[in-house]
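Single Protein Entry

Contents — chain, fold
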Amino acid sequence: MEDLSYLTDKKFTEFDLVPELLQGLEAAGFNCCTKIQAESLPLALAGNDVAGQAQTGTGKTAAFLLAIFNHLLTRPRHEQHQLTSVRAVVLAPTRELAIQIHRDARLLGKFTDLRLGLVYGGTGYQQQRDSLSEGVDVLIGTPGRMIDYFRQGVFDLKSVQVVVLDEADRMFDLGFIKDIRFILRRMPPPAERLNLLFSATLSHRVHELGYEHMNDPNEIKIDADTVVVEQLVEEVYYPANPEKLPLLLGLLKQTGGERVLIFANMRIACDRLGRALDRQGFSAGV
């Protein structure tokens, strides 16, 4: 029996969301809110800033994406808006997180006409640059690559209406805080935009960042017993190199092999693993 204990009784249909978003939620199979969604959405939809303590698996991504989309779809563009202007920015500390946010944004925004952009380091430099040439409404990405394109004039931040800082504590850990401040200071003042911040911990340095670049944020903390990630089971194996692939195949067959993330320490290892999984009948993307 499916465990739905992390959900609340609050339904998305109870919020003042535009029909396109309700249609996207229905198509994605989302009916009831998690706790972070139930607590943050009423505030964000009313135009109030939110600083939320929430870990991976709490539903925070859907919470801030719905807030972004509804805000943009119910308000006119900034008076200084141009083709290169971005209306909303989502900053993530890693490319993996940025890619996942973009994937979720495409799912939830499927029935809107909002244009999504994705930028991150390590690959696809010119392709990503070209994708911004016709303008985007929501730009999702990592700080370094975003600053690179900004300094080249590929896009501007003068018309930003919403900004989201996801996993703020990791931004500090990875040394991105100067880049974050650079980006935020190129936007309209905090009082003229909606500001959303999410972090696994609301430490002193995260609080300081919030009060510097947000407009009197409402603080939300999720209790440990409501965090979905804590319901996951962790198991550790120590196979020798020749045993790694057989062990992986056995685990995939045991679990059904659906919605699985596999990490390797080198690109060539990922390529080899992808080919091996394909030969075994698994649909693998690298």
